[in-house]
Amino acid sequence: MPTAPLFSFESVSVGPPDARRLDGLDAQLPAAGLTVIAGPSGSGKSTLLRLCNRLEVPSAGVVRHRGTDITQRDSLQLRREVAMVFQRPVTFPGNVLDNLREADPECDEARGAELLERAGLDRSFLHRDAGELSGGEAQRACLARSLATNPRVMLMDEPTSALDARAAAVLERLGRRLVDDGTPVVWVTHAEEQLRRLADHVLLLDGGRVHRSGAVQEALGDAER
User: Which are the contacts of 66, defined by CB distance < 8 A and separation ≥ 6?
Assistant: First the structure.
């Protein structure tokens, strides 16, 4: 039996008729690998991503997660399964372990150290003040917090746009590692260079509609990565 798409969008529109952010969009995101959503500013990239865990709801159409209309899912449970890392990291008052416990109140130091290791930080960060982390450290701490719910999907909304090249490269490697460990990742970017480095699959948007989609070589019209 064919595997259901990770997400499917059926005639999805968002926004009023005279200012659509997405306009009758039909698309499918594959069940595995790293899918990059790309396109110019204002093309609907972040809107599409936010539909995946009901931070946005469509004005028309249906969004499905693995074949199920997500309006039939409890939104809080959905967001634990479909976690999101935002463009700019948002930490809570307290140390990093306190932040991890916002996602998993039962998180102890051993579990916290494991989560930080998956996000590219060592256990010494557990007791660091979250408000004093660098941008790259804070983004990785937020990734660890997202991982605390044992998500089945990771959404990444331009997570490297505010980072320097070194910190961005670390986060890109972590994204690929998640995929290698079996967690599909959907990553929004406006940078073609990042798309070519990361993508297994690509969805290119323009004006709230699909411009191209498919395996990265096919969608870009060449065989270069």
Answer: 4, 5, 6, 31
Q: Determine if the pTM surpasses 0.90.
A: yes
Chain segment 204-219, per-residue pLDDT in tens? 999 999 999 998 877 7
Token pair in block for residue 18: 């005279």
Nearest to 216 by CA among 7, 40, 48, 35: 35
Residue with tokens 């660091």: 128
- The CATH homologous superfamily for domain 7-220 is P-loop containing nucleotide triphosphate hydrolases (3.40.50.300)
Residue 140 CB partners (closer than 8 Å, separation 6+): 116, 119, 120, 121, 170, 171, 174
Question: Which residue type is seen at 190?
Answer: H
Do residues 207 and 19 make contact, with C-beta atoms less than 8 angstroms apart? no
- Phi, psi (degrees; rounded to nearest 5) at 133: -75, 150
**Are the C-beta atoms of residues 30 and 2 closer than 8 Å to each other?**
no
In terms of DSSP H, where are the helices of the chain? 45-51, 75-81, 96-103, 109-118, 135-147, 165-180, 192-198, 216-220
- Domain boundaries of the chain, sorted by first residue: 7-220
